[in-house]
Amino acid sequence: MSIKNFYKYFPLKQYGQNFLINKNVINDIIKIINPQKHQILVEIGPGLAALTKPICQFLEELIVIEIDVCLVDLLKKYFFCSKIKIFHQDALNFDYKKLYFKKNKLIRVFGNLPYNISTSLILYLFKQIEAIEDMNFMLQKEVAERLVASPGNKSYGRLSIISQYYCKIKILLHITPENFQPIPKVHSVFINLTPHKNFLYFVYDVNILSRITKIAFQNRRKIIRHSLKTLFSEKELIELKINPKFRAENISIIEYCRLSNYLYKKFNNLKKN
């Protein structure tokens, strides 16, 4: 990617586009991703091909998903376009499972994610987690901090719990705004999310876990005896060894899983009766 191409293409706010331009950072990211010839890599939002071009050197084919038709046209003009398979569509609608079944191989997803869809996209990818080997993303620092936060931390919330339920998460690089064009108002980080190979946490139904955490953190300043009173009595919380006077941010992931599994069994018993 060249600065000349950046000025030819004006980034669109509607897609949250901020293009990475620092070659040293790009090289660091490629080392982290460590693409191998036999792997299936999918890039979300290739933009001006800052990562696309160098990663193509390691692969026979790179799959890219780009929503912006102008950038799709630009990608087709690059000399390495014969190595990329372009899907002109929204990454939030892409069928990653279908690609997995077609290739008969787990896929690796990476990209400099637009800030306006990063959280939604990660949650969407969790729904197709069985198709994914790992994910490597550039994210807004604040989002990354929420992903890795532990109980008691001000950033700890529903996103922390759901993300850590599915994946081991590592922050690998901290990247300042001047490494992008246009220069964003926020700092960024590059992270790795690797799905747990063994069940670190277990719930019968992740939708119940999602529901409990949503209710709890909508009222995060309330103690859970009050915020979750429609789901659990104080007696039930005590029986589950969860302090009813704790707030949502003080409850661990394992404890939320315990609540989820209790509620699952409770619902099932009601249905049987």
TrEMBL record:
The gene is rsmA. S-adenosyl-L-methionine binds at residues 18, 20, 45, 66, 90, 112. Residues 25-197 form the Ribosomal RNA adenine methylase transferase N-terminal domain. Belongs to the class I-like SAM-binding methyltransferase superfamily. rRNA adenine N(6)-methyltransferase family. RsmA subfamily. This is Ribosomal RNA small subunit methyltransferase A. NCBIfam families: ksgA (TIGR00755). Keywords: Cytoplasm, Methyltransferase, RNA-binding, rRNA processing, S-adenosyl-L-methionine, Transferase. It catalyses: adenosine(1518)/adenosine(1519) in 16S rRNA + 4 S-adenosyl-L-methionine = N(6)-dimethyladenosine(1518)/N(6)-dimethyladenosine(1519) in 16S rRNA + 4 S-adenosyl-L-homocysteine + 4 H(+). The keyword Hydrolase does not apply. GO terms for cellular component: cytosol.
